[in-house]
Amino acid sequence: MAGRIDARLAELGIELPRPAAPIANYVPYNLTGNLVVISGQVPMDDGRIAITGKVGMSVSVDEGRRAARICFINLLAQLREALDGDLDRVTKVVRLGGFIAAPAEFTQHAAVMNGASDLAVEVFGDAGRHARTTIGVPSLPGDAAAEVEGIFEIA
User: Fold this and answer.
1) 17, 74 in Cβ contact below 8 A?
2) Where does the record place the Endoribonuclease L-PSP/chorismate mutase-like domain (predicted)?
3) Distance (Å, rounded) from C-alpha 148 to C-alpha 62?
């Protein structure tokens, strides 16, 4: 039987993908105490990076926002794996960290990262409100436009 978070994802029309395997020497998540730390996720969709390039150059702010949203969906896929399929164990989205590939003069990083932050609140309600850091970077793995990492509190 699907839990309330699975039901909410279905309402939003979101089907979580199979979690991506690490591409280097790291683990996709770590559980410690009542926290789950999820490694950075790029906007992987159907086995490929869906949105590549630099936001503010070849990628619009709206496309960047969509990239950050896809990153959060991939965070949820890793989180579901870490929690043996039970996303209802999440009590709080503690922190999201966003990395936006952009040129030095780009200043709308926060608007891009809202793609992930807004979805966190859509999925988890008030428990989705989180602390956040968003920075611009010159490049990301696979030329991804964004990467998002997260820390979640669990019961």
Assistant:
1) yes
2) 7-143
3) 16
